[in-house]
Amino acid sequence: MQLDRLVSFHKALADPTRVRILALLARSPLHGQALAGKLGVKPPTITHHMSKLREAGLVKEKREKNTIYFHLEKTALQRKAVAILEYVERESPMKESSQEWEIVRHFFTPQGQLKHLPAQRKKRWMVLKYLMREFPPGETYTEQTINERLKKYHEDVATLRRELIIHHFMYREKGIYQPNPPELWSEMPG
Amino acid sequence: MQLDRLVSFHKALADPTRVRILALLARSPLHGQALAGKLGVKPPTITHHMSKLREAGLVKEKREKNTIYFHLEKTALQRKAVAILEYVERESPMKESSQEWEIVRHFFTPQGQLKHLPAQRKKRWMVLKYLMREFPPGETYTEQTINERLKKYHEDVATLRRELIIHHFMYREKGIYQPNPPELWSEMPG
DNA sequence: AATCTAATTAGTTATTTATCGAATTAGAGG
DNA sequence: CCTCTAATTCGATAAATAACTAATTAGATT
């Protein structure tokens, strides 16, 4: 789910009256006047809230004579409720271990600059893997792009580039760089 | 989770900047200046957002020298994300069948008033069960409270009260009413 | 003590929004 | 055509809030 859809879903739930509406509709379908009565608000307020809930895809309605019955879209609610988890997960290639980050972070300044490449092979590998966050898979990168992005971390981009290739984090062909999938990375040393 | 906690959780996620912060922190802990830099906002804005996220229990912080590193409380996020599902579920004792509701609803006006108690025993039982939504288990109720709440449905609260007792939906002792758990209810007739 | 940096507070502004009363629209039924 | 009811729209108001600048606090280092 894209950011703005995700945010407007949570906006829909960021009001006590709307949450109570959903709880009522989970019991049974209700029409506007009944909701207004049970919640102690006026009909225009219900209209206001229902349009937000409808926009968020959480309720649907069925007309019956002059009356409009709203019902909860429970499967949509379930799906959207967990979307935030997928969203933060999708963006986090470092999820495997926060201990790893505890080691890696000492080689970066608070501004995020790399102080120096670790001498220890294991730590060096971790730092290189960390740098790969700049190059998500599924895309290819020119050498110029690689240089620009590595420059943010350290002056000596040539060494960084070479190390990334050596450990098979990336693959180079005719000046085009391509991130390897984790299966092709070199093993984490000792 | 109670309503206001639930709402303030969703308020915390109802802003694109805060969702982006969570996504960044899912990668690795970061301090305020780094967040400000990556998001293109000023430090006071970060302070503002972090206090909301902290209040919602989604981030924690660790001081190190002069710098404060924030990290995501992922398990809290997971727990709270699904809380809305439990909330709407908990309030819906009618979930077992919407066919049941199709029968029951004919005895209520669109405003939610009970037209009359059904003569058929099975339908009468269903209507009484439906009325029990007013009296969640885990609490006790005075007769006055019972009367007030039943009054919304029908004038003749005495009959309703008596029927609820007869069918063992509630238990009365010394003028205090207590809802029975479903195991103690009388069997649904027919 | 003086200084540097990160974070916070205070105060301001512009935007959003929850709610209401009054007026209007949309159907249904006489 | 008239009337009734449910729902919506319109306009107004009050409250919440996201963002900034400027000033201040809190620790750490010199």
Automatic annotation (TrEMBL), chains A, B:
Pfam families: DUF2087, HTH_5
Keyword check for DNA-binding: yes
Name listed for the protein in its UniProt record: HTH arsR-type domain-containing protein
UniProt keyword annotations, A-Z: DNA-binding, Transcription, Transcription regulation
Entries under Gene3D superfamilies matching the protein: Winged helix-like DNA-binding domain superfamily/Winged helix DNA-binding domain
GO-annotated molecular function: DNA binding; DNA-binding transcription factor activity
Domain HTH arsR-type: 1-92
CDD domains: HTH_ARSR
